[in-house]
Amino acid sequence: MNGWRAKLTLFLMLILIAVGGQAADVAWNYSGNLGPDNWGSLDPSFALCDDGQSQSPIDIATFNVDEQVVAQFELNYQNAPALLLNNGHTIEMEYETGSFMEFNENLYELLQFHFHAPSEHTINGQPFAMEMHLVHLCGRCFFAGQNDAIVVLGLLIEEGPTNQDLASIWTGLPGTAGEEVHLESTFNALSVLPDDLTTYRYNGSLTTPPCTEGVGWLLLRETITMSASQINFFKTLLSNSCCDFNNRPVQPLNGRVVTLDVGMD
Ligand SMILES: [Zn+2]
Hints:
The protein is an alpha+beta fold. The strands form two sheets. Strands 2, 3, 4, 5, 6, 7, 9, 10, 11, 12, 13, 14 and 15 form a 13-stranded mixed β-sheet that branches. Strands 1-8 form a two-stranded parallel sheet. It contains six helices and 15 strands. Zinc ion binds at residues 114, 116, 133, 207.
């Protein structure tokens, strides 16, 4: 195990321990007895999936967002070796150490990005074809016990023109649960993001067990496209290795405020 993966594993173990559970290898899925309605009772460490009051994803009602002038985040992502993993719930690219988001005067390291089909967040009740999540961790924040040690940058994907930026990794996506693929090419997640980085922001959770709260969500307002065949390719791999869909249903807002950035430079 090389350095960054050891560090990643340590972080993830600490996160699981921090929410009061073991790093339990408990089976869960997206439908039936192991589906989202039952996650909270599958293991004590998954209790927040049932009891949490700040869960993700949510529906974003655009008439109800609170426009705020906020500091923009800065993305400093590097080209990274394309290491793709099918973890049995999604397919992700594990990002080599050294790519950061600067946010609220903290440095958040990009750990990985992965995909959901259909989208997890909805806008005015409307789902999208897919959603990409870029997961960041502020190690210093985590060890200091601060909220928002994890920040997820979310990106909604609509069916449309072929996504040339994702094409280089798409054909190499591993289709078997547990399978890992190392492509010879490198990839930079920055290439996928839209020009306009305006986001909806709210405090939420991981959208998978153990549904850990204190996750800062930044959902980009501008969407990107993928072609029908790119979307169908992902869905086929998902059906073969996991499930026909891998989106958790939207969760109650419980009075949380959703903001939208305005007046950024
Ligand atoms: Zn996700």
